[in-house]
Amino acid sequence: MKNRKVKPTYHPETQAIRIQSQRTDHMEHSGPLYLTSSFCYEDAEAMRAAFADETDAYIYTRFSNPSVQEFVDRMRALEGAESGFATASGMSAVFGSFMAFLKTGDHLLSSQSIFGSTHTVITKFLPKWGIEHTYFDMNKPASIEALIRPNTKMIFVETPSNPGLDLIDLSALAKIAKKHNIILNVDNCFATPALQKPLALGADLVTHSATKWIDGQGRVLGGIVLGREELVKEVYAFCRSTGPSLSPFNAWVLSRSLETLHVRMERHSQSALSLAQALEKNAHLEWVKYPFLPSHPQHAIAQQQMTAGGGIVCFELKGGLERGRRFLDALELLSLTANLGDSRSIASHPASTTHAKLSEAERLNAGITPGLIRISVGLEYAGDIIQDIEQALEASK
């Protein structure tokens, strides 16, 4: 059997399926799993050259591994990135992308609407190293440039945001970052490269929690940072020494997942749009948010920079915090779990779970209201998902 090469002219979807680590003598069709902590050399000179970075030889799995590299190469193809480094989780990717570039005296400018753990890193841990931060409102993009300081080194943004589905014009934000020589770091977890490519829109770095839609089945943890080679080298240097590396097994699972990413995201997006359209008519809700609903405040931006709306739908229950809990208890099909991006639909109430450790003021500033419900729309039959949510809304009134 011929060891076929993947042409760089192939479409990213094809590359995500066909790129694989080198085949062994067995000529296996699916990429092999390299469960080893270290690698051997023919002689002392080969070992010296590897440690001197004079060759691409593998050294130690904390640094690199063929199974991990296959995942990185597939993600590079999908995001259009020069380089990437895979991490043990999405939060280690976010933290690594911060610490590789920020030092005492620097300033981070971040969107207010971000994942709860990212908020904790920015507000509780970065200040320990003398790193300052300022939040901006994604719904007021005209105010961003005035918040930049002489010591601002990075702009960080989630779009769509977790959990409120706020969006921002990445091309416009990239122009601001480049004007001031600031790194633009975009969390692309909710959209994935199947629906949105921040690097093509001017971002410098892209981070992912591969635990979510990239895996797609709630099996393993993983993360990745992607971007220009000179920037990823800094991330690699930080992570190589501090150790938040992705395991070969998880990388192997994630590589297999990428082979179905586009077809999965297409189905997630179709079902999520159907759910959002159905819920807009529901009398138990104050509002419904989904990027591809015309009622979304940044609908035009979503259509401009995303190919579909993704698999998350948010809505505000009439009745607030207690109504939110009753709604979760009334669900019969959807799972209650601390994850999203699964083949199985998931419901969560951020105010009492993922963002519960934030103060009420912090939650409201991030757009997390007492009755906010986040639905991660799975791959079940869309009618069953809609029926379960509608009966739970009725039962919780």
Mean pLDDT metric:
93
* Annotated CATH topology of the largest domain: Aspartate Aminotransferase, domain 2
Give the low-pLDDT segments. Answer: none
Beta-strand content bin: 5-15%
Helix content: 25-40%
CATH homologous superfamily caption of the largest domain? Type I PLP-dependent aspartate aminotransferase-like (Major domain)
Strand order of the largest sheet: 1-7-6-5-4-2-3
Sketch the major β-sheet.
7 strands, mixed
> How many DSSP-defined strands?
11
Spell out the blueprint of helices and strands:
Layout: H1 12-18, H2 44-51, H3 66-79, E1 83-87, H4 90-99, E2 107-111, H5 116-125, E3 132-136, E4 152-158, H6 170-179, E5 183-187, H7 192-195, E6 205-209, E7 223-227, H8 229-242, H9 248-258, H10 261-279, E8 285-289, H11 299-305, E9 312-317, H12 320-330, E10 346-348, H13 360-365, E11 372-376, H14 382-395
Parallel strand pairs: 2-3, 2-4, 4-5, 5-6
Antiparallel strand pairs: 1-7, 6-7, 8-9, 9-11, 10-11
Helix pairs in contact: 1-3, 3-9, 10-14, 12-14
